[in-house]
Task: inverse folding
């Protein structure tokens, strides 16, 4: 299967891999997780990392996407990003895909904060932002036929079905992983769900924006 080019997707992937290699080879992954990872408690206590050269709390939903715990972590994330992202970018364009990724990153962190606002555990990785890319991929390329149910349109039924399925999968992953995996650490299930829901919500508006009708010149 030949994938579309996806220059933005490739660029995000290349920068993320370069950041990981730099941190991994210099032994700074753990330090980067503290100063650049998303720490929910920082939103309620901005002074939590006073005295450290930490990334501002409001920027950590983005900075944390460039920090990964290990090879398996970044390998799986980049595989999903490149496979789904290129195809989504082919439809939504680079601007729509970038909007998905950025808003998805913030949505993922917001969901993680909502379940444990006092947590001081840094969340790292691009999984939440990538979940926002996987959602439109599932919507755009799914072959499943759905029908309207009562007042719910077929499109809304598809969105609800995908959301329910993704949440169920994430909850099963959480139950199966228990306390966590040796390399990945505790999996941020809420972040995956938050990013995916953002992607579902933005797909239709971004499609309309990408293919909006432009006024024709009259002469």
Result:
């Amino acid at each position: 299967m030949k994938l579309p080019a996806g220059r933005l997707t490739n660029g995000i992937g290349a920068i993320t891999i370069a950041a990981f290699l730099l941190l991994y080879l210099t032994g700074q992954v753990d330090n980067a997780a503290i100063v650049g990872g998303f720490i929910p408690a920082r939103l309620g206590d901005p002074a939590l990392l006073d005295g450290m050269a930490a990334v501002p709390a409001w920027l950590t939903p983005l900075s944390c996407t460039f920090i990964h715990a290990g090879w398996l972590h970044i390998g799986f994330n980049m595989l999903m990003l490149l496979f789904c992202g290129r195809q989504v970018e082919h439809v939504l364009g680079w601007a729509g895909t970038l909007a998905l990724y950025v808003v998805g990153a913030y949505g993922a962190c917001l969901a993680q904060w909502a379940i444990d606002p006092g947590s001081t555990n840094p969340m790292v990785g691009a999984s939440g932002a990538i979940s926002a890319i996987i959602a439109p991929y599932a919507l755009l390329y799914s072959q499943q036929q759905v029908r309207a149910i009562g007042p719910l349109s077929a499109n809304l039924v598809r969105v609800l079905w995908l959301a329910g399925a993704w949440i169920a999968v994430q909850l099963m992953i959480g139950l199966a992983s228990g306390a966590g995996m040796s390399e990945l650490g505790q999996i941020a299930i809420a972040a995956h769900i938050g990013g995916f829901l953002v992607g579902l919500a933005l797909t239709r508006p971004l499609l309309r924006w990408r293919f909006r009708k432009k006024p024709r010149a009259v002469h």
Summary: The domain at 7-210 is CATH 1.20.1540.10 (Rhomboid-like fold). Confidence is low (pLDDT under 50) at residues 174-185. Residues 98 and 161 are 25 Å apart (CA to CA). The helical segments are 7-25, 29-36, 41-44, 60-63, 71-115, 127-141, 154-177, 189-210.
